[in-house]
Every structure is written in structure tokens, then in C-alpha cells.
Amino acid sequence: MRHQPAGLIDRTFPYWSLLPAVVVFIVLSLYPLLNLLMMSVSTYRFEGGVEHTTFDPMANLRYFGEDPGLRPAIVNTLIFVFVAVSLELAIGLALAITVSRVSRYKGLIRTLIILPILVPPVAIGSMWRLMYNYDFGVFNQFLSVFGLGPVNWLGDGRFALASVIMVDVWHWVPFIFLILFAAVEGLPSDVVEAARIDGARQAQVTRYIVLPLLRPAIAVAFTFRAILAFKTFDEVFLLTSGGPGTATELISLHLYKVFFAQNNLGYGAMLSVTVILMVVSFLLVSRRATQGGKEA
Amino acid sequence: MHDRLHGLLKAATLSIALAGAALAPASAQSVDVGKHTPITILINASPWYAGFEAAVDLYSKQTGNKVNLDVTPYGGMLEKARNAVRGASSPYDLLNLDGGWTIEFYEGGFLKPINDVDPSFTLPKEMLTCGNTHWWNAQKRWRTPDGGKLMGVPPNCNVHIVAYRKDLYDKAGLGAPKTYDDVASACQKLQSPPGLYGFVIRGERGNPIRYDFSTFMVGHGGEFVANPQEGDYTVTVNSPKVLAALNQFIALAKGCGPANFGAIGQADLIQLMASGKAASVQVVIAAWSNFEDKTKSAVAGKVAAAAVPAAVPGQKPGVVIGNWSFALPNNATAERHKAALAFLKWFSTAEAQRAYAEAGGIPVRSDTLKSDLASKPQFAWMPAYLASVEASVASLGYAEAAAVEQAIGLRLNQALIGEMSPAKALNTAAAEVETIFSRSGRKTGKLPPLPE
Known about the structure:
The structure holds 2 protein chains of 2 kinds. Chain A is mainly alpha-helical.
């Protein structure tokens, strides 16, 4: 028997049930974002202990042209993201495939590999700064055994960004490894077995079976890691503070200096919006590139 | 005869005892500041913190007034202070502000002038001026007691000194350096890298190089800006005098320091001196305790202090103040303001300053610095500090200071590491600083470019 038409509450219940999630979304995501957009087109000053806001988008736009630190920050960030994420993907993937083939102590090896991701960023910065130390650092001590060095890891513009990237790779390879290791372990064994029965060598299995099957997992790992790499701050802040010169100035660090050191809230907000747009553009381009590859 | 002698001795003993009794209460006497509500102080975890903590303990013991300390690393101080003053009610009753941040707080109207709380309050005449960064003339937008209001009390007049290895200097027949030429000569004699660097100075981009270079620049008679106190913001950072100073700075930093001269920060510099790898360093007085603490230093008892050397022989040394200032947030109650000011009154006394110094603090009273403490080996830095601080001037005393410092600090670093010629670095900095002032509506301009 068919029920009577539901009342207004019953009919609209699906929408009401979404309300808590919508409120949380508005309060935690939409409002801060809108507020940031408002800030980016305003200038701020404090007088008599009170904040005075003026709508003046051109004032903040003018800073873009006059900010000498912006261009190196954007260039360095793009280099940093491209090199660091590429290395992390390559090493993480190699480790995932290798460890998946290990028959004993797999759990222990997996635990050891993910250790760096558990170390707090401040400890990482302090630890690596000591290891890179020109006079006392372990790297230069090691090189001196072979009569080499010392290398000015953090103080020479030729090496500084590479040194920061090395720390980032050490820190984040475990993240890529974890995602890809789970994917490798979940690969259908029958497909791999069939390829082997057909006479495929290990390299061919990896090239033509494993890698194509891992493609979605690699795309996820790349997306997450690229987003995080664009926002890198703690490592570079603790290791070099952007120096020497502008060799390691990343966009997040530059943004921090504008926002907090210079207290330029309007331009800082506009830079924040720029970073968001950079990340979104980068991801759209990468997605298109990977989709293009798929079609080909 | 014997009785007379005995009587004289008795009289003399009695006189000494009476004199002692009269003096003893004076030295142990504490100012009566009354009973007050507990206060909370935002204080930085700097090397001199132990001295401040000891002074606070003594204050609580003597007065019964409770003090809570929020000990914060330097990097977190500014944001905590900003958040405190921008809220409805400050969680802190006293904010310890870096001299460089004070203008933002003065101009924003976030602080309570001291004499608005107690019109009768004056700083003791023995108090060091500390570059007058704790005074604010709102009309002139300048930190000066001339028409300005007292906005704080400094706990530390941080200035540079040169810390040098007395044992090595003595062995090489060298006296305390009086000029940077002396520093260079000593460096030539002692330099033996990588075991020993003759002279180390901070070259790290930003505040470190800007502040350490200032002693050279001011010593050469140079300035970043023509006359900001009178409203003339013509940029003079690309003057021949500043160029001469930069060349001298680069020669010493490169010729006498480690190969990573462009990345040397405060921690690296302290580490090099404390581990015995530096024969001399230019360092802020606040770092001194790192060299004399046997648990941290391999050279404890071997380090002496000299006042900032003259950049040009025969001329005055250029000392730039980098002090702190205790200030009262506006958004606290009158009761809390009075409680905070009671602490500042007590802290300014000779007795409090002595206790502060004995426990590792850097006192701000000239009588403490000239007292018997100065003759004790562990306080051998006091005469050099006093000489430096008396010659010191404030720098970057305008609202655009942070942006100006970033621009100059970057270009100086690029000149040091060879990314730009010194002349090009100064010309570039001048153009950037002029843009900053122009954007703020200041009366500005710049000198003709230096030949590159």
C-alpha cells in the first residue's frame, strides 16, 4: 500500500540533512576564502588601536610590479616543485616496487622507510642545518676523509636550493612510498603471472604491466605532493631563510615576510590568492598533460 | 695609654659597624611599590633570560606580587604581541618589544603611555638612553624624548661589542682592537682556516647583515636615509661613504671568516666562538653568556670584550642600538596597568639591576655597570658594553623599517656573496627604498647612482 504524501519536513529532509555539512563548509572553507579575497583588494592600517580598511585593489596590484622578491620566489618555487616532486616520485616508486618483492621483514623495512615523515619539521630543519654545517657538519667531515671539500652547502648560491631539495626529498619520499606501496601490493597478481607465463622479463613486466596499472596511484601521489611542495615553508625557513641572496626564496617564505615581517596585510592576501591560483593552474595543466598521455 | 688605645679601637670599630649598618640597609633596600594584582609578561627566550627570571623571582619575594612569564622564542614574539594588542583584552600586562617593532605599535595606538598611568613616573637619571627608542613623538612620528611620551622601559640596551680571544691576542702581542684596521691586522696574524678564523661577522641575508653592517656604515658617517627625523627621506644608502663601508665589511667578512660568510647567522657565529674556531667575533652583548658558560663554551675564561671598533681611524665608532622595550598594552585595565608599572619601577632600581646582572642579565643602569661588578672577571664585558652603548644611535626609526631592512638586507648579502658589485647592490637598494618611501607618501628621492 502506498504511503500518504510526506509532509514538508519529510520532503525537504534530504536538504536539511546536508545543512550541518554546508555550515561547516561555509564557516571553515568558504568564509576564510572570501575574507582572503576581500583582504586582497583592500589596504589596512591601524590607528588608535583600531583597524581601518580601505577598498583599493590597485594599491596591492602596484606592489606586484614593484616587489623585487616576487620573481625569484616564483621561479625558485617552480624549480623546487618540479625537481623535488620528480625525484620523490622516482625514488618512492622504485622503493615501493623493490620492497613489494621482498619476502622477509617487509613490515620492518616499510616502518624504517617511513621514519623521516614522522620527524617534526623543526627537528628536520635543525638536524639538517647541523649536518650541512660548513665547519662541523657530517657531510663535510665525510668528504674530508677522502680529501674533498668542504662544500658550502647552504651558503653558496649554486648548491643552496639543491641542498634544500635534498632535505625535502628525504622528508617526503616516504609519503610517496606509502601510497605507491599500497597500490603495488594491491595489483592483480593474475595479470602479472600471465605476463610472466607469456615470457615477459621483469623489466618488461614493470614497464608494460606494473607502471600502467599504477598510473592512477601515481597521479594521486603526484597531486598531493605537488600541492604540499608549493606550500613548502618550514624547511627553507629553518635552513636558509631564503638566502644566500634569493637562491632559496620560495613563494611561501616570501608571503610570510610580506604578511608578518612587513605587516602588509593587503598585499600579503593578494600573494596568497596568487599562490592558490598557481597551485590550481599547475594541477590543471598536469591533469591535462596526463590525460593527453592517456589518450595517446 | 693602653686604655686610650683600647678606647680608640672601640670607637673605630663602632664607627665602622655603624657605617656598615647604615650602608647595609641602603644596599638591601627595595622600593615600596605596594600590593598589586598578578601580572603576565611576554618575554623572549634570549641568552639573558636567566637574569630576568632571577630578577622577577626577587621582585615576587620582596613585594609578594605575583608575576607570570610567557617565555617565547624570538620568532614567535611579534605575532604574540600583535595578537595581544589587537584583541579585546590583552592576555599580557607587559610586552617586551624589539626596538625595531615599536613604531608599528606606537603608530597603531596599541600602547599606553607610561605617564598616563602614573604622571609622576620618571626614569632614574642613571638609566641608559638606549637610543631613546622607548619615547614616541606622535606628531613628528619619531622616537624622541623631545616632545615625545615615555612608552616603555628598556630591559636591555643591546649593542655590538667585539668578543676576542684574549689568550691568543696576548700570545700574538696584540692589544684590544680599537679600529677595524686593528681587527684586520689581528686577523692576518691569527687566521688559520679551517681551524681558526680571524674575525667572524654575520652575513646572513636580512636583519643579520643589515644590523652588523650598520657599525661600518655609521662609522664611515653614512646613513640609509638623509634626515628622517626632520621629514627628509632622501635615500643615501648609495653614497660613497656607504660604499667605502661596504667594501671594508666585505673585505673583513670574506678575508677573515669561514667560506660560508654569506650564510653566517647569530647561532653560527656563537658556535664558532664558543667552540674555539674564531679568534674574534662582532656580536651583540646579549650573546655574551654563551662564551662564559663552561657547559656551553670551550673558551670560557679566555674571552675579552672590546667596544665597537672605529671604522675610520681617529673617528667615532658607529654603534647602532638594537634594544628591547617593556611596554603596556592599551587594552588592559587600569588596575593591570598599575600592577605592570609597579614592576617597572622596581626593575629600574639599582638593587634589581644588580640582581639582574649577577644572574646573567644585561643591566640598563650606568651605576650598575660602573659598580664593583665590573672589576670581576665574569663581568669583564661591562666597560666595553658601557662604552658601546654610550656611543650608540637608533636606526630605522620609521614605519617602513621592516620593508627597508628587507630590501637593504638582501642587496648587502648579494654584494657579499658576489652576485652583484657593491656599487650595483647599493644603487639597487636605493631605488627600492625610494619606492617604499614614495608609496608611503614621504618626501623622498635618492642620490645619483654610484659608478658600477
